[in-house]
Structure formats: C-alpha cells, structure tokens
Amino acid sequence: MAAKRAGNSKFLKEYNESVVLDLIRTNKAISKAELSSITGLSATAMGVITASLIGKGYIHEMGTGESKGGRRPIMLELKPDSFYSAGIDMDTDYIKAVLMDITGKVVNNKCIDMLVPPSFDLVIKKAEKLVVKMLEEQSLDFSKLLGIGFSVPGMVDSLTHKIVLAPNLEWENADIRQSLTILGDIPSYVENESMSSAICENWIGLCSNVGNFVCINIKSGIGAGIFTGGKLYRGTGGTAGEVGHISVDENGPKCGCGNYGCLETVASSRSIVERARRLIKQGVVSSLNRFDDVEEIDLDAVIDASRSGDEAARNILNEAARYIGIAVTNLVNTLNPSKIVLGKEFVKYADLVIDIIKGVVECKALKDPAERVEVVASEIGESASALGAAIIPLKVLFKYTL
Amino acid sequence: MAAKRAGNSKFLKEYNESVVLDLIRTNKAISKAELSSITGLSATAMGVITASLIGKGYIHEMGTGESKGGRRPIMLELKPDSFYSAGIDMDTDYIKAVLMDITGKVVNNKCIDMLVPPSFDLVIKKAEKLVVKMLEEQSLDFSKLLGIGFSVPGMVDSLTHKIVLAPNLEWENADIRQSLTILGDIPSYVENESMSSAICENWIGLCSNVGNFVCINIKSGIGAGIFTGGKLYRGTGGTAGEVGHISVDENGPKCGCGNYGCLETVASSRSIVERARRLIKQGVVSSLNRFDDVEEIDLDAVIDASRSGDEAARNILNEAARYIGIAVTNLVNTLNPSKIVLGKEFVKYADLVIDIIKGVVECKALKDPAERVEVVASEIGESASALGAAIIPLKVLFKYTL
Q1: Model pTM greater than 0.80?
Q2: What residues of chain A lie within 8 A of the CB of B245, using their CB?
Q3: Residues spanned by the domain of B135
Q4: Could you tell me if A122 and A173 lie in one domain?
C-alpha cells in the first residue's frame, strides 16, 4: 500500500501538509527549522508546505522565537479567527450550539431549553438557525465554516453518519445530512454524545496526549466514550461505552434495559432526584421538606441542600458516588486506563463526592492499575458534547481518523 | 513521516516484503498477478519481492491455480516446515512447550507437570531443554528457529520483555532474556498468559479477522486478553483484561485482591472445586461423597459428576456460569465486541454451561450489543497460551505490532 500511495503525489502532498499543520497546532508555536527536524523533510520542502498553509489561511507568522545560535527564527502558529467549526448538542431538554475557531477557542455559544422532547424536524430547523445566528454575530460568512458536528444521545452509524436510534428523543433512522436546508452544503458529521465528550477531553480537555482513557458522562443517563491507543474506540456496532448498564447491585432497582441495579438506576442525576423525592415523601428529616411539591425537587436542590449541610441530601449523593466508584473500579481493572474523567452534570457536585469515588477505587481496584489511573472531574462539564461535536470538522482538517 | 521513510529504501523493501508475505499467509495460496492487483505494485516489482521471499525460504511455488483466461497461474504459499517458532507456557503446576512451523502447524509439543510452584531458574532451565528436545526430535538446528515466545501468568513490561510480577509464581523483576543460556542467541519474547491466548485466537483460533474481541481464560484464576481495532489492547500499565476482578456479587466472598465477590471467587476452577468440597463437608447429597478425602475432589471430578446427572455438581457449575454471564454482560455493554471466547479449563465443561452464559447475556445485556456478540467456547483450550507465545515470533516476521 505504501508504494501505491507514494506514487500518488497529491495524496502525499496533502498528507504532509496535514502532518505539519497538526505539529503547529500541538506545539502552539514552532519554527520551520524545528518542523524540518521533527519531520525529516528538507528546509526547502518545509518552506513549500508552510507557504501553502499560509496561503490557505490556516497558519501565520507570529514574531520571532529564541535563537539557538544564529538568527532568531520566525515562529508559526495556527491563525486564530481564520476558520471556524460549529458544534450542536441536541438532547431531550436543550439544544446547545458552539462556534469554535481553528485553534479551539470558543467564540460564540447559544442554548435553547426545550420543555418537551422535540421532533427531529424542529431540532434541525432550530440548530440551523443557531449556527446562522452565531455566524452573523461574528460577521462571518459560510466560506469560513469548515463544518458542523452534531452530538446525539443515541446510536450513530459512523460510516453514513445517520442516527440509528436515539431512544429518549424517539428518533430512528434519522438522517441529519439529508435534512439540512440552509447548511446543506457545509460538511457535517454526526456523533454519539458520550463519544463527543471524549473527543472534547482528548482535544482541549484533560486527556490531550492521553492514549487510554474513559470519559463518563453523568446526567439523566450515564454513558462513556472510550479511547484506546489514542483513538476513539467505537466497538463493533458503535455502542461501546454503555457503562450506565454496568450492574453494580444485582438486587438493585429494575432498569429500563431490563437488567437490575444498572449504574444508571442508582447514580444518574435522575436517580438522585427520584431518591430525594422518595425519601421526602417518606418523611425523612431534610431541608428539602421546604418544597410543597416534591416534584419540584431537582438535582440543583439536592446539591444545594448537601452544600448547606443537609445530611439526607449528602447521603444521597454519597451513595450515588459509591456506586460510581464500583463501576469505575470495573473499568480500571478491565481497561487499565491512564485517566477516568467524570463529566456533564457530575461537575456540579464533583467537589462533594470525588474523594468517595477515589476511595472506592483505591480500596477495591487491583493495586497496579489503581496506582496508574487518575480519576478526575471534567473541567469542561455540560458543554463537552457540543464542543466535541465542533472539534470533529477540525479533526477532519488535521486528517485524524474519526 | 511518510516522506522520511520513503527516502529509506531498505525500510520500504522490508516493509513491502512483509506485506506480501502476510498476504500469502492469509490467502493460503495466491498468484503473483493477484498479489500485484491487491498491492498495486507492478508485475516486475512483485517478481523481485517473491523471488527474494523464495530465496529466503519462507515461500514456495505449489503448482498452478485456475486460469482466468490466459495461462494457469503459478500459486505461491508459505513453505511448510521451512522455519519454526517455539512457545513456552509456564505456570505454577506445569510447563507446556510447542513447536510450530511458519504456517502455524504444530509439529511437536511437550508438557511437564510441576508439583510445587517452581523457581524461576528451574523453569528457564527446563524450558530450554524442552525446546532443544523438540528441535532434536524434528532433526532441526537452531538456524531454523525464528524465535521463542514465553507466556507468563503475570505482568510483563512490553518494551523490555521483563516480568514485572508473577504473583502465583512469586517471581518479581525477572528477566528471561538475560537468563537463557543455551538459547541466548535466539530472539525471545515474553507475554502475559491471557494476552498470549488472545493472540492465539486471533492468529489460528476463532478470532482471525475479528477486530474487537475478548478472550477470557478460566482456570485457577480468571483473566482476559482484549483486542480492539485488530490489535492487542494492553492498557496503560500492561494490565488490561483483569476481568477476574469484575465484581459480580458485592456480598460475595473476599478475594485475594481485597475486594468482595470478584468473578474469580465464584467462577474460577479453584472456586468451583472449593465450593464442591465445602458442600460435601456440609453433607449435601452427591456422588462426590464417594471421595474419602474431600481434598481429592478436583475440577474433573465435579465435571464427571455433573455429566453423570449429579444435581449438586450441576448446580455448582451452573452457578459459576451465571456469574460468568454477569461479567460477560458487563464486557458486552462496555466494549461492544464481536466475540467473547471462553477458554482454558472452561472448555472441559463448556458444553454443560455455555447456554446458561448466553441466556444471562441475552437477558441482561443491552439489546444491540447483545445481538452483535457471539459468546463461544474456545476450540483450542488449554494450549492456547503456549500456542499464542509461539505465534509471537511469527508476528515479528510478518511485521505485526506486538
């Protein structure tokens, strides 16, 4: 294959450009001499490549660096605000949109709350409008938009980018690409929500340069994106990472999936809220009794109560955390990752419970993999999937495997 | 990088040869014209490569194939009995040795039973003698031996091939390569036992051409080798696959690792035997009462009793299988693999319990990944690690990543 590709000079030209572009991205600022040294390409060849990248507008010269003997070298970096990428995170109760420049800097974002799970057509319509509005607010036209990534809470066919099934949205066999009207000519990509978050952590979050990690999204449901060997691991049918259905208590509550004691039934935001409501109904002593209608108790109320020293609320969060610790222990033993990042709504109360999770892992996981793993709360939180979706067109530009 | 490598013609020559060699291996018999068509290399270039491989003795012409219009093409195949590879599986109670030819055919094998966990030096000495003996019996000299692979029940540093820790053998920081005396000049490789079995299933077993699979070894302990995207997944510290420590019963027995209800404590061969002995001591009705000394009850006795219709014995195996099903369910949901192969001592009683395991997965795993996974008993069984170890030098020859 190498020989066949080498005969195709256009392929190699593009490949070399994308490698150099990515080196400039990961090094932040780098000279042509350093690029030559890293790639083994001649100074002449590197001159041609960087001139092409400057001509396309992706990079620019940004002053001189430190001299290593001779002239002070001219440093190259990605050109901020040159090109952009949009990310849309669509869920049952919101549509989040972000606009990011080529360097990963977020320049605009929008969020629409949904009261009821929206129809597919409505979401697409609103998503297109959000992208157009963000572009307008930044005074940008479509030519500056590299692409749009869509994050969906469901199963996506990674080849066709069709949504196979998004159960909570009740979407089946939905084709976003075919449904775009205003943005139909912009390259678009569709990705599972948990995998989008993992892409985000890997590109701009806590897992850049981390080959093996698991990014667990905790909200109404629980799912994960898994990276192995530096690449997103999708599994055979694209459903890898369903850690919300790791059974952590064989005698636990029945899950929607049919099994009992799935992590989701005892540690999701929804299960935390349901448990709080149940306990209040049962008359437990708690500041949450101030709610006239238990249905008004939400995750924020439980967290606030816990922060104010409410023992019942604290116990609810601690119990959920203990179960997360059991599932994380399984992942540590099975996958021996460098990092496990806990994100989405979890970041709202991470400071209250992260030590409980770490304690369970330390106590229950095998010594060696436990010593090598860092269990951390995401620093990005609830926007991770929208950001991850926006990163997908950038990965395409930098010629990464999706 | 591509450009740098392309400038190194020796690298490309070796690379092209290994690609062609592997195509000949995987296609069993193939013509030069077909090889040209697959690789995109010219007939002349392919002639040079295949002549070189014939000259080295790896392949030979084996008659003519079917004509597709013109002359009947000369077919090439790996040359059986041209070169060999040895595999050694070392454990607490045995040393297994196999000698395999370049095609994967086993030409000799030996096994020594050990009554007590042997010292490192003794095992190395005996292993060397076994290899020499197998070569002698086949009338082969060292020049025909491509290399030796060692399978170890413990943690191996995949870069240095040193044994970090093999707890049951009480070996720590042991260096097989440095300890070889007779075979010191032969390339040697050291691999974890479960990963060796997975390598075997991938090369000559049920998982050739399967990208994502888990090979679970069930014997006195339980461990797994995981393949993702066609490659062995080692994890960050090389300990990925410790599925024996997936917790399947929070209130279960205490495990050596400190956790409770690990799969190993309720589904390993040892736990099956211990449970049988305990029940007999408690006076349960069973044909196993024929043993004057319960300590004489071993796995084979429990299996034989079960086959003879002994209900107590059957319940013990069924219960172990149910727990295996729970752990397999976790793996199916988390990794979405195409296959889960259960091997080693499990193959002795697989026919009795495999349907129970499949039933648990069908009932408890998520629908989509459950439909895409095949849960099967290995067809190789207890020799899988020795065979996998022998395959490692072949993978090196065919330029696969280890």
Answers
A1: yes
A2: 333, 365-366
A3: 84-202+385-397
A4: yes
